[in-house]
Specification:
The protein has about 140 residues and is mainly beta. Helices cover about 10% and strands about 30% of the residues.
Length: about 140
């Protein structure tokens, strides 16, 4: 499954959380987000602090072997796969989703692709990208005449 951000005009007109409303429509009318009505969501946070860009994704239940990061032409591609448990068992109820999710992040020109690092800890993938030295603010000394 590839996560693609689309513009929802209803959310512009009526700001707020429409998660339950979207879920209801998906259940009643069918979802166009994939074959499963339970599409695995990978929430992300992106922020800038000092000389680095940070990205965090919530990826509970994934292992390091199922996380793949690639950088190409200014885009950081993050592939994460959460595999379904093995074994044959009858489900009574299931709200968990499994599968592969891809997030594509367009990085600013100030990002240094050679500095990209990632760490997976307690179900959170933390990616750091340093800014290029020439993109850092330059402090200019003021001289007295």
């Amino acid at each position: 499954m590839t996560t693609t951000l689309t513009k929802n005009r209803v959310k512009e007109i009526f700001p707020g959380k429409f998660g339950d409303f979207d879920y209801l429509f998906d259940q009643l009318l069918g979802s166009d987000r994939g074959a499963s009505s339970l599409a695995w969501q990978v929430p992300a946070s992106l922020w800038e602090a000092d000389d680095k860009i940070h990205v965090e994704l919530d990826v509970p239940g994934t292992s390091q072997e199922n996380v793949d990061l690639t950088y190409d032409k200014g885009v950081l591609k993050i592939d994460v796969e959460r595999k379904a448990p093995e074994g044959d068992h009858k489900q009574w109820h299931n709200e968990r989703a499994f599968g592969k999710v891809t997030r594509n992040l367009v990085l600013p020109e100030s990002a240094d692709p050679d500095s990209i690092g990632a760490e997976l800890n307690d179900g959170v993938l933390h990616v750091t990208i340093a800014k290029r030295a020439d993109a850092q603010p330059k402090r200019i000394a003021v001289k007295t005449a």
